[in-house]
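Troubleshooting: if your tokenizer reports a length mismatch, compare your output against this known-good record of 386 residues.
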Amino acid sequence: MWIPRSIEPELRKLAATRPVVVLTGARQTGKTSTLRRLFPDYGFVSLDLPSEAEQAQKEPALFLQRHPPPSILEEVQYAPSLFRHLKVVVDAQRKRAGQFLITGSQKFTLMKGVGESLAGRAAILDLEPLAFAEARAARPETRCLDFMVRGGMPELHATPDLDVVSFQNSYLATYLQRDVRTLANVGSLRDFERFLRACALRSANLLNKADLARDVGIAPSTANQWLSILEASGQVALLEPWFSNRTKSIAKSPKLYLNDTGLLCSLLNIRDANSLIGAPCAGAVWETFVLAQLRHRERVAGRARSLFFWRDRTREVDFVAESGGFLELLEAKWTELPDSTDLANLRFVREAIGRQKVKGASVVCRATHDFPIEDNCRAVPVEELV
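Known-good structure output:
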């Protein structure tokens, strides 16, 4: 079963107007499947195959003779030498759109090659795990809590009979062996896995690298490097604080989130919806889930880098969405019936920022429908975010 992705129209448009399209994202988010479905007439080669990667790296001209445009090149970061030769081929027919569609799951390595050789020639898109809205469009019976535990990897929803625990365990093992070893010389994969689990325990919390390093037993510089690896491979996201000149005591540290609640639940040993309901970390998992849906909403709307959080010494609002000079304030609450007590931080921050600048204030919760609470604040089900 194919699950359509909201990114598909933009991919088609870019392939019709730009010579190169680069699609990044974590492993198993559906990059190659999406491109091959949208562009069935393109050639295809995967540099996951060592023989192809070796030729692309050592004999790039011959490799491109074997795979002329239009072609889909998968995991091209394994052959850094290829980028300079791609530039030569692209420039020979600069006005020809859709010459190469490139994928990569190691963003920093990939973007270094794109920036050095394909600047001005490549359009760049990021494919994240399935949003709840995408899964529901394909399978209307999908329940919110089940989706949170199952996660957003498309294969888990296209093939519902797949065992989630086995899939996540295999995903983690493959990620550690392939991406981590490639991106950095990690001496101990066991320590790195412990670091990833420590990040899972801190999802939806302020990032404190010193505490993270101390708990895992590694140097702060190592923690910083490993966090960059998790970002580069699409496993975590850092949400920056919103601030203005009028707010002096606001937090400067970002908040840490895992990108996929399925992997998060696996690392927290949450195996089903009933276990999630009774888990002490349910609120953090919910906030992580809400952020993923907000990121999807902002991408669909074409708003890049528009999400933040607000925090000072005593108060916090989980999410601040900025658009056209106005702000939307959102709190993620693990409740079905939020009341006036859940609005304290929204009210405080709205007054601190200025009511005239705030276009909306909402509590994103597990309610079955949208309803007003009080003081122009609403309860909003996660299904209505998009």
